[in-house]
Amino acid sequence: MIGDAGDQLLASFNVVAALAPQAQRNADEQRRLGEAIRSAVTALQFQDMANQLTAHAQRRLGKLEEMLVRFADGVDPLLATTRLQPVRQSGMGAGSIDLF
Question: Is residue 6 part of a domain?
Fold first, then answer.
């Protein structure tokens, strides 16, 4: 899919390069130029989204790899105390109450 988007982008750029320098264009050439520009923008948007998704997947895979290495070393990452916890209890002593 990414290769197809690259091919479409190249074809669109070729059409734009051929038609854009012309001062006068007939209606058909004007339509082809508009379609080529829209196609190029769509291909660039697709490429950007694909790059973002690929980078996100690589980050997630890196974290999974870290966890597997820790698991192989005998540390259960799901039970580790260094894990980020949104709510943690450190004691059961009496304290004050904050009302919002």
Answer: yes
Rounded Cα gap, residues 89 and 97, in angstroms: 15
For residue 77, being part of any structural domain is answered with no
**Residue ranges making up the domain that contains 36:** 2-72
User: Considering its fold, how many domains does the chain have in total?
Assistant: 1
Q: Which pair of structure tokens corresponds to residue 64?
A: 């999974």
Structure letter (DSSP) for residue 79: T
Is position 97 within any domain? no
Mean pLDDT of 69-73: 82
Q: Per residue in 65-82, is it b (16+ CB within 10 Å) or e — as a string?
A: eeeeeeeeeeeeeeeeee
Alpha-carbon distance of 89 to 100, in angstroms, equals: 20
| Mean model confidence pLDDT for the chain | 77
pTM of the model: 0.52
pLDDT band at 99 (very low <50, low <70, confident <90, very high): low
